[in-house]
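Reopening: structure tokens for the nicotinamide-adenine-dinucleotide complex, inputs below.
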Amino acid sequence: MTVLEGTAAIITGAANGIGKGIARALANEGVALALCDIDPSVNELATELEAVGVAVTASEADVSNADEIKRFVDGAINRFERIHTMVSNAGTWRSTYPLDPWEKAIDDFDAVIATNLKGVFLSGRAIAPHMAQMGGGHIVNIATDHICPPPGYSTGGGTNMDIYDASKWGINGFTQAWARVLASDGIRVNALCMDATDSKMIRTALGRTPPPELLEAWMRPEQIAALLIDLLKEGDDGRTGENIGIWLDHEIALPPKAEPLPSRFQ
Ligand SMILES: NC(=O)c1ccc[n+]([C@@H]2O[C@H](COP(=O)([O-])OP(=O)(O)OC[C@H]3O[C@@H](n4cnc5c(N)ncnc54)[C@H](O)[C@@H]3O)[C@@H](O)[C@H]2O)c1
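Re-run output (same inputs, fresh job):
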């Protein structure tokens, strides 16, 4: 029995990549799961994980749609009575550039911000009142190393991802604000800021079959999931308000807990 056994978690964007890796790892810890994705294969994942012996519910919900995400989260609460963890993982990436044609720019902005930023906003808003009522919980937002690079590197991603990066900086606003104001409700809020990790998204962004040396270098979803589990196992006294960098060529481990800085605003 692990300390997470008997808890329940919501994972958005669970059908592929990092979300799928997290779902599999949490199932192995005995965590009941509510999974959503716009990809219907989330239902097959639910069947796979039920075979592990945990309760799983799956929903084809779009995190950018307020009605769908509220219905999904409320359904998960009804099914499991208490949700301990929300992993806001669903994300999308488009190649964007400041000199793009106007129509493309507007379409890209709406699509990327809707999933990456509004999705995290809606997921957090849907679950926070429940967690507060239950005396606590843990929200983990999935950001990127572009906002939290390895020591010695500047922030920012590649040359063709300004909207993606802006969406992830926006997530940081929620992570920081929620961590501070929800601490008194026992709710921890952190973000995982990972470097290149093998997934559908990064393969799409690369635009070609990754050569063996890249596949070798990239992290794997299971490694991100293992770090997330360590973060959850910190329990009620664990860190909050941290952007946790997970970088290539660095040890994949939780850094020492940061000392909270005083705020100018009380
Ligand atoms: N792979 C990387 O290198 C990397 C690095 C840093 C951050 N991230 C972040 O990790 C998260 C997971 O990405 P991934 O790399 O596993 O990519 P992925 O494409 O394999 O998985 C993303 C999942 O989100 C789902 N999704 C997309 N839009 C959705 C929506 N509106 N509603 C519900 N589900 C939706 C997709 O169907 C997919 O299953 C994303 O937030 C991404 O920005 C990835």
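The chain has a mean pLDDT of 97. The chain has one domain: 8-246. Marking as resolved unless the reporter disagrees.
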